[in-house]
Amino acid sequence: MSIYQWLVVEVLTAAIEFFWVVFIHRKPETSVEDFQAYWRDEHSKVFSSIPTVKKNLLSYEKARGDADALQQLKDTSFGTIEADGMAIFEAKFYKKIDEVFTDEDYKKDGSA
């Protein structure tokens, strides 16, 4: 590989970021209200405090499901996915996200 090809590959790789969108379903024994309260008030504090999350993710966003908004979308031509919550993870490489979800601290504290 020539130096020019290597530089192009390095620049392109450096410019690419990886996003992973996850749809979350509450446990059957958890009420909608309890899930939404936890998801809204607690989860991001717990998840964001894990060292590997701080180290590997560029950003983390979440949203909770809204039955009224879902029904409005169903009345349009948009496709819908029924879920209680959604999260978007951004990292430089997909392996950085994998490191988060295979980390022992995450398994212990962040997967509630």
Total tally of structural domains: 1
Helix and strand composition category: alpha+beta
Strand content: 15-25%
Roughly what is the average pLDDT, rounded to an integer? 79
The low-confidence parts are 1-13
Strand order of the largest sheet: 1-3-2
Q: Residue share in helices?
A: 40-55%
- Remind me, CATH topology? Alpha-Beta Plaits
For the secondary structure, the number of strands is 3
Figure out the total of helices.
7
Quaternary structure state of the chains depicted: single chain
Overall geometric form: globular
| SSE sequence, one letter per element | HEHHHEHEHH
Give Rg in angstroms: 18 Å
Q: What's the level 1 CATH class?
A: Alpha Beta
- Reported CATH architecture: 2-Layer Sandwich
Major β-sheet, in short? 3 strands, antiparallel
Tell me the span between the first and last alpha carbons. 47 Å
Describe how the helices and strands are arranged:
Layout: H1 3-15, E1 18-24, H2 32-41, H3 43-48, H4 51-56, E2 59-64, H5 67-74, E3 85-91, H6 94-102, H7 104-110
Antiparallel strand pairs: 1-3, 2-3
